[in-house]
Design a protein that fits this description.
This protein has 295 residues and is α/β, with parallel strands linked by helices. It is built from nine helices and eight strands. An eight-stranded mixed sheet has the order 1-2-4-3-5-6-7-8, sandwiched between helices. Strand 3, helix 1 and strand 4 form a beta-alpha-beta unit.
Amino acid sequence: MSERAVIFRVQDEELLGILHPGAEGARRGVLIAVGGPQYRVGSHRQFLLLARHLAAQGIPVFRFDFRGMGDASGRQRDYEEVHEDMSAAMDTFTQQVPDLREVVIWGLCGAASAGLFYAWRDARVAGLVLANPWVRTDEGLARAYLKTYYLKRLFSRDFWAGALRGRFNPWTSVQSLARMAGAALRPRGTQGDGSNPDAARADLGNGPLPDRMAEGWRRFDGPILVILSGDDLTAAEFRDVATAAPAWKGLLAEPRVTLRELPQANHTFSRREWRDQVAAWTQDWMQTAPNRGAT
């Protein structure tokens, strides 16, 4: 299988990408963006394996390091500061694969958020694959903890059996539950989301992260594949936001959206069967997704 390193620049910094050419004459490819403090190979080699799977099916793939990560120079940036990196990677990808006309951005966690911030600006972006998108706010995290941990724990037979045997003080868990409930019951959007204070430069407003992501979703008119893990706090936060937050009303139910869920999978799809399923879903969706603006 042909793979080659490509060096490109963003301002004064040098970035490294790996090109998987796919079939000759291919017109639609995948740009894998990296989320969180990791590099182009991905946790458990997921991005590498995904790229090789898609390329074997004839789909060109380009995976790369953002500035400050992996083998790229410069300071580390979060998902709100990588617009120039994404644009440069798109330019490099399309230059390296001359017949390429459409690019799908594939992102996990913060890279999914970065994809929503970027996609609507670039006519070359044909679609988005968003895996466990990052929508973190203080109250959103609290609600996810309540639903996925605290309530299950308090209604667990093992929890109370351990308490009765004196293994731990249940009052500590009850107090923690009360604090989480207080945070979860705050009005949506009133807490900071820990994101960059200069986020207004993304032209999506100054609101909380989930609201700005919803606006990016609305502005992008292409198909979207959402992949969610069942055993993941980040995915639980996204489910809560996408189904209950006013800014997200109706977005997940749009005809252009395909939702896939892996009930047992963790955040980074660490088992082979989970990675293989994500790769198969991505391939099938790539072959059947409508063109941008067709829905």
